[in-house]
Amino acid sequence: MGTQISLTLPSNFRVDREMEKRQIAYKGHCLVLPFPCQGHINPMLQFAKLLAHKGVKVTLVTTRYIHKTMYGSASSCIALDLETISDGYDEAGTGEASIDAYLESFWKEGSKTLAELLEKLSSSGPPVDCVIYDAFMPWPLDVARKFGIAGATFFTQSCAVSNIYYHVHKGLFKVPLADDQSLISLPGLPPLDPLDLPSFVYDLEYCPAFYRVVVGQFSNVDKADWVLCNTFYELEEQVVDWLAKFWPLRTVGPTIPSKYLDERLEDDKEYGVNLFKSDNDACIKWLNERPKGSVAYVSFSSTAKLDDEQMEELAWGLRRSKSNFSWVVRASEAAKVPKGFIEETSEKGLVV
Length: 352
Description:
The structure is a single chain. Helix content is about 35%, strand content about 15%. It has about 350 residues and is of the alpha/beta class. The chain has 2 domains: about 30-260, Glycogen Phosphorylase B (Rossmann fold, 3-Layer(aba) Sandwich); about 280-350, 3-Layer(aba) Sandwich (Rossmann fold), CATH 3.40.50.2000. The strands form 2 sheets. An 8-stranded mixed beta sheet has the order 1-4-3-2-5-6-7-8. Strands 9-10-11 form a 3-stranded parallel beta sheet, with helices on one face. It is globular. It starts with a strand and ends with a strand.
């Protein structure tokens, strides 16, 4: 069932009744479908808010499991509609399966339930004009095409990284790289040492499933009506110019709350979605007790998994750095933090 929400997303997804009563002449209707992890949802959510600010009706689509587990805080920013589709693992999301099994299920069940959603929306209000989908999952473009709907792929990564993965996808340089590989030259980028490349490319055994995801982003990119990139032109002019020669590319970033950019959206200072419950008050109190600019922030996203040796090396590196640090560790990784580390570094470190 669809819900209308006022962003930042509240945990109970409060319905904005006043917005429901108003009849708005929308400029178009975009369905925004991010990959179901925090580092992908939030950039696309920020972009969705800007579209809505321009008079576009926006429907944000999450998986059913993500819908049930998102945290947020109430705010009166921009109202979006919220809908869900299935990834085949509605009770525990990615926690129920291996990466390969999850991606296969998401492609199958996601395609089916996305088609059902598009049919429902076409009969209950303004039909969808464009599906904006995360490049990590190319299959929404195929679904959109069956309905005669435009498709825009959204890259959350920089154009420099996209350039590297694109060359791997096209077979323009071989992976895995040889041990004696010399510097690598790619259009729009400075000469790269093999160790400068993303780990998925440098070491194929690191995480083969994610290698297939990041390279698979380009399986049908040439068929997209637009290619949207979470970057800005001045940051990487040369590589943007090169990619724009063969893609209908638009730089739309950085997709962060408006408060930290141009303040187009009043009071927009929250990202809006948190898949992990956090204790912001304790963190702010601790930070306020340290000199400005003196704290190193350490986080490895919502999906990365470090082994025991890597966690130990990181911990002792922080201990010996003599710097203040705030280290974010997921509950599932907490047992890997060396015994006694938190107590021994409590004066200069905060592990949350």
